[in-house]
């Protein structure tokens, strides 16, 4: 793929190389028969000969699917649900996330709680739940735009003293579009002016009908400040997850998505990733977005070093060559060379796109078009 030599190009045009060279010279380009010319130049020359060249977007060879191992149904095991919290600003998303995190850690682990990696896991009734704390839902929407499904369940937070607001509706639309079940947390129930019935009424108008009104949506009254109702909320999450039968294969190479990433002065590129399938291990060669790296270390949501990260686990990884974007997919490559090559190809492609258009053509493409 990419540029052609003058000789190859002349052949495609069914012209003598000397004619092409003459045209090039008339355009001020001194070229020999074995010299490569770029696509823009080719298009100008083709036009001179009365031929229009159309460009086809090159097939992305770096597709991860090609090296995805199939799941043996026998190898599939239950995995924790991945939950995002959405809702209108100031309705209590952050407070709720914090409260859940702090009340559902086992004693002795609370020390590492200051660690913030953009996602965390809690345990209730011996089952784990993964929460994504995606600022502004940026990662959520990017990932969805790419067709990657990351969230299994959305908790929609609606303040009982404020009711449904524009971002509440926006959140409902996101979740519906992504086909993600919604559990409504009617928050700020500790406030005297809380009016949960009004919230139910308003949400019914948006298609979220409470179970007690004959609908299918679970509503849980909570207070993110006092913690009231939070255990019940988490139990409902597990209930919905059970119905979904979420499974993964922990015995294969990991793949997943970048939740957030940054350049750390001391540690280099640091990315929080969510393992969606397989198990990620220290020492694995991984492509994340356009970058390759060997995992040097992994840190969990409690700030502890870990050696392995099974499905649905959020973990911070060190060792990437540069900072990938939030929402970028990642995948482990057994063949390091292949991993590096794919990362390089992706980078080249992105640069090409930034320069304007997907002007990469293959010989085959040209043959088809001329
Ligand atoms: P976010 O914008 O959705 O993340 O909302 P925050 O979590 O930042 O909460 C906005 C404000 O509401 C803060 O002042 C919180 O202390 C307050 N708040 C959140 N949840 C509750 C609650 O359950 N009860 C009361 N009384 N206040 C709450
Ligand atoms: Mg917030």
Automatic annotation (TrEMBL):
- Which residues of this UniProt protein bind GTP? 87-94, 133-137, 187-190
List where in the cell it is found: Cytoplasm
**So which domain of life are we looking at?**
Bacteria
Q: Where is the Tr-type G domain?
A: 78-247
Which portions of the sequence form the region G-domain? 81-229
**Hey, which family's this protein in?**
Belongs to the TRAFAC class translation factor GTPase superfamily. Classic translation factor GTPase family. IF-2 subfamily.
| Function of the protein | One of the essential components for the initiation of protein synthesis. Protects formylmethionyl-tRNA from spontaneous hydrolysis and promotes its binding to the 30S ribosomal subunits. Also involved in the hydrolysis of GTP during the formation of the 70S ribosomal complex.
Name under which the protein is recorded: Translation initiation factor IF-2
């Amino acid at each position: 793929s990419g540029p052609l030599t003058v000789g190859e190009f002349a052949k495609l045009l069914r012209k003598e190389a000397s004619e092409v060279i003459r045209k090039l010279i008339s355009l001020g380009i001194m070229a020999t028969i074995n010299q490569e010319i770029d696509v823009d130049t080719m298009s100008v020359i083709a036009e001179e000969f009365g031929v229009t060249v159309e460009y086809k977007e090159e097939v992305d060879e770096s597709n991860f699917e090609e090296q995805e191992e199939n799941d043996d149904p026998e190898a599939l095991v239950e995995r924790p649900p991945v939950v995002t919290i959405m809702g209108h600003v100031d309705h209590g998303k952050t407070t709720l996330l914090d409260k859940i995190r702090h009340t559902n850690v086992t004693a002795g682990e609370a020390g590492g709680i200051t660690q913030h990696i953009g996602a965390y896991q809690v345990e209730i009734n011996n089952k784990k739940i993964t929460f994504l704390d995606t600022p502004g839902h940026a990662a959520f929407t990017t990932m969805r735009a790419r067709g990657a499904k990351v969230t299994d369940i959305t908790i929609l937070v609606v303040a009982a003293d404020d009711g449904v607001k524009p971002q509440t509706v926006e959140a409902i639309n996101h979740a519906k579009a992504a086909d993600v079940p919604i559990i409504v947390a009617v928050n700020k129930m500790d406030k005297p002016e809380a009016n949960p019935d009004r919230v139910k009424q308003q949400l019914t108008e948006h298609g979220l009908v409470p179970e007690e009104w004959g609908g299918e949506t679970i509503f849980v009254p909570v207070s993110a400040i006092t913690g009231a109702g939070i255990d019940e909320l988490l139990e409902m999450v597990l209930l919905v997850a059970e119905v979904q039968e979420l499974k993964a294969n922990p015995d294969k190479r990991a793949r997943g998505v970048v939740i957030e990433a940054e350049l750390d002065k001391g540690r280099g590129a640091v990315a929080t990733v969510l393992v969606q399938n397989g198990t990620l291990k220290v020492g694995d060669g991984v492509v994340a977005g356009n970058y390759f790296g060997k995992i040097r270390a992994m840190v969990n949501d409690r700030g502890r070093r870990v050696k392995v990260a099974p499905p649905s686990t959020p973990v911070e990884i060190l060792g990437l060559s540069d900072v990938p974007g939030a929402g970028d997919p990642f995948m482990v490559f057994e063949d390091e060379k292949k991993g590096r090559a794919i990362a390089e190809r992706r980078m080249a492609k992105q640069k090409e796109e930034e320069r304007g258009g997907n002007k990469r053509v293959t010989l085959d493409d040209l043959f088809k078009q001329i």
